[in-house]
Specification:
The complex is a heterotrimer of chains A (252), B (214) and C (291). Helix content of chain B is 82%, strand content 0%. Chain B has eight helices and no strands. In chain B, helix 5 runs antiparallel to helix 6. Chain C is an alpha/beta fold and 291 residues long. Helix content of chain C is 32%, strand content 23%. In chain C, helix 2 packs across helix 4 and helix 3 runs antiparallel to helix 4. The longest helix of chain C has 19 residues. Classes of the chains: A alpha/beta (252), B mainly alpha (214), C alpha/beta (291).
């Protein structure tokens, strides 16, 4: 088991965003999370990547607990130093790319491997160029993010995440900030990664993509998982009325 | 008094003005960063006190602050202030400019998209790596024009050191002008400030250009 | 650890603000024996030896001879009618330096009372920070010996009076630009004889050395190796630069101040050993301090 999140609870002030959510992701699995906005799917990703702290529940990577509920029912995290190690298990691709604007494309991809993983500069550069090649961006290695299109920037962001050799890769609505004609190139890359058996969790609004690429689909609404399962089942013949309604709204 | 004599007696003052200028920058630029972090502290007491500090430093004349830094230890604790004149000037200037720089840094800091911090955090950068590699370079770029303004003000503010009987360039100009009933020292002073600020503007413009690559 | 560092730095900031609450006192009692019944020795005094004597006169623009004549004449008339002495009496610290007497004043040559143009306003230029000649009084109004004398002169002639407090450094520009008609503010004539049309010399002053009574400094020679303070653009400063440069050469350092107030605070704080200052301004500082 790569990721296990059990009984996660999270509130912002009085607003309960996640109500007792549990998910698990196996090695090589591609999981899509769909749901209306405000359903808590992005918050779930942010909790999984420690950008938000959970109120209660437990988070495990590779069967190691990063956070678990103590006797008082509150979530307790491991030390900051240990948490830093946990971060090597995962990578996150943001909706807004969040590339470092003052670094060239190459440096964006190779900087963290050099300064966080302490890889040698040559090794990191070779790996970065290889990843950029895979993203079809080798000729952009010397460019700065502001000189790239949104689709290209997102592909650099994916390369940056992959350069850390994560065991699992999270995508937080990776195409939502892109013009429609640019989503295809990003989805193609994610599909390619799925073919290579990369473990991934994708929060997305691209229903046909989710249906085609996922091993499992999770439908979330109002902070709970309404239903999950095989994509053909969830999209084709959902059990719950809320799921049906959501998918209907989407098709219009 | 010949022009050369005037220039010679004023040049000692110019060195003193430059000393204030550079020492103030050396201390206040980093200090401002510390003040900004205190100002942004999540502990209300700390950020509140820092806010009051900034309000006082920006809300009262620098001249008064210099007096208080110098005479404060004597009137508060009856400490001897012999030989404390120059340190007091540097402390006064640095604490004052740190408050201004802190607010400039804060505006720049808050203009950096939160995604930059998050991307760095997820990639596993340490706090100091995040600050020095990701945040600071972007911060510098946005705040450079405001910093230039502040530095130019500092050049001219050095004349306030005369409040504490520190004979910087402008006080000497005034003394010569008074004893010689001459306007020339003021012209020399004007040229000095102008050249100083021209150099500052030139250097800062170069820096801005150097950072304009992205 | 980080919290401690933050608290510590905040403590430093607090200290900084606390010291901001300290006002620079000029009115506090100094000396350790306050409150005792014993008659107190003055904490600060002048050395018996002085630096020299100077005369205070009224400076007019070069060429304004007629105006200088009229104002000087009116002032002489005030000497004759006793106003000069009466005003002087309200400044006990400097009364003894007022040098005009009725002797030798020819009453017939003076302007008549009320003979001036009633529409004319005489603009009195002065430094607002030069007590007791011209300064901001306790009640916040502009006052001082020179201000009162000038007002009396205008009253006598029937002129309007306008106070023009200026930055001392800009006095020549103010005068030449016509924003004031005279410089009358404990204005020393010596060394500036040719730069202005001079009116009457109405006061003398002596430049002296002010020291702490317990400093052990008794003579000018004792000043050797000491730190002496002086205000910029004053006669004392000019003297130490020119006539008494030999003496200034023996000092460890000559600190030049923007105002004597700061120099006096430095003397009280022990940061300097002596102040070169004219007797009247110095006496004023001391007596004001003991109020």
């Amino acid at each position: 088991m790569i990721l296990e999140m059990n009984n996660i609870q999270k509130s912002f002030k009085d607003l309960k965003v996640l109500r007792d959510i549990s998910i698990h992701v196996d090695k090589g699995e591609v999981v899509s999370i769909i749901g209306p906005s405000g359903s808590g799917k992005s918050t779930l990703l942010r909790c999984a990547t420690f950008l938000e702290t959970i109120d209660a529940g437990e988070i495990l990577y590779m069967d190691r607990a990063a956070a678990k509920t103590n006797e008082e029912g509150k979530a307790e995290y491991v030390s900051h130093a240990e948490l830093q190690q946990f971060k090597q298990y995962f990578g996150l691709v943001f909706q807004q790319f969040n590339l470092f604007p003052h670094y060239s494309v190459l440096k964006n991809v190779m900087d963290a491997p050099v300064y966080v993983l302490k890889h040698s500069r040559e090794e990191a550069e070779a790996q970065a160029l290889e990843l950029l090649d895979k993203m079809n961006l080798k000729d952009k290695a010397g460019a700065y993010p502001s000189q790239l299109s949104g689709g290209q920037q997102q592909r650099v962001a994916i390369a940056r995440a992959l350069a850390m050799n994560p065991d699992i890769l999270f995508f937080d609505e990776p195409t939502s900030a892109l013009d429609p004609e640019l989503t295809g190139e990003v989805l193609k890359v994610i599909r390619q990664l799925a073919d290579e058996k990369m473990t991934m969790v994708v929060v997305t609004h691209e229903m046909p993509f989710a249906r085609a690429v996922s091993d499992r689909v999770i439908f979330m609404d109002k902070g709970v998982i309404v239903e999950q399962g095989d994509p053909e089942k969830v999209f084709g013949d959902p059990d719950h009325e809320r799921t049906k309604q959501f998918l209907r709204n989407y098709q219009q | 008094m010949t022009f050369q004599t005037m220039l010679a007696s004023m040049s000692a003052g110019m060195l003193r003005s430059l000393a204030i200028f550079f020492l103030t920058l050396i201390f206040s630029l980093p200090l401002g960063m510390a003040v900004m972090y205190l100002r942004r502290s999540k502990y209300k007491v700390i950020s509140g006190i820092t806010k009051i500090y900034i309000a006082i430093m920006r809300g009262t004349p620098l001249m008064l602050q210099l007096l208080m830094w110098y005479f404060g230890p004597f009137y508060l604790f009856r400490w001897s202030i012999r030989g404390y004149r120059f340190p007091a000037i540097i402390i006064g200037f640095s604490m004052n400019y740190a408050a201004y720089f802190a607010e400039i840094y804060r505006s720049g800091y808050e203009a950096i998209p939160v995604g930059q911090f998050e991307a760095a955090e997820v990639l596993g950068y340490s706090r100091s790596q995040t600050f020095f590699k990701i945040i600071l370079p972007q911060l510098v770029k946005t705040i450079l024009p405001s910093i230039t303004n502040e530095i130019i003000t500092l050049v001219k503010d050095t004349s306030l050191a005369f409040t504490l009987a520190y004979n910087e360039m402008f006080s000497i100009a005034k003394q010569i002008a008074s004893s010689q009933t001459s306007f020339v020292p003021f012209i020399i002073a004007g040229v000095f400030y102008f050249v100083m600020n021209y150099v500052v503007a030139f250097v800062m413009e170069r820096a801005e250009k150097a950072l304009a690559y992205y | 650890m980080k919290k401690i560092a933050a608290l510590l730095s905040v403590f430093v900031l607090c200290l900084a603000m606390l010291s901001g609450c300290v006002t620079i006192e000029t009115g506090s009692q100094t000396g350790g024996n306050a409150g005792s019944e014993v008659k107190e020795e003055p904490a600060y005094l002048f050395l018996d030896e002085t630096l020299g004597v100077e005369s205070y006169a009224i400076g007019f623009r070069i060429g304004d001879d007629e105006l200088a004549e009229t104002v000087s004449g009116a002032l002489k008339a005030l000497v004759l009618d006793g106003t000069y002495a009466k005003i002087g009496a309200s400044y006990p610290d400097i009364e003894e330096y007022l040098c005009l007497t009725a002797d030798g004043i020819d009453a017939d040559s003076l302007p008549e009372k009320g003979s001036g143009d009633p529409d004319y306003t005489f603009k009195h230029g002065f430094d607002l920070d030069y007590p007791p000649y011209s300064y901001l009084q306790d009640d916040g109004s502009v006052g001082g010996l020179d201000v009162e004398l000038c007002q009396a002169v205008c009253d006598y002639l029937g002129w309007g009076y306008e106070a023009v407090p200026f930055n001392w450094d800009a006095k020549d520009m103010e005068l030449n630009a016509g924003s004031c008609d005279c410089i009358w503010s404990g204005f020393t004539k010596e060394g500036r004889e040719d730069d202005y049309t001079w009116g009457i010399t109405y006061s003398n002053n002596t430049q002296g050395i002010l020291v702490a009574a317990d400093s052990g400094i008794k003579t000018l020679e004792d000043l050797s190796g000491k730190v002496v303070g002086v205000q910029t653009a004053t006669s004392a400063y000019d003297m130490l630069q020119d006539a008494r440069a030999d003496l200034a050469g023996t000092f460890a350092d000559l600190k030049v101040y923007e105002t004597y107030t700061i120099a006096y605070n430095d003397l009280k704080a022990g940061a300097i050993d002596a102040i070169a200052i004219d007797m009247t301004a110095g006496t004023f500082l001391i007596s004001n301090d003991q109020k």
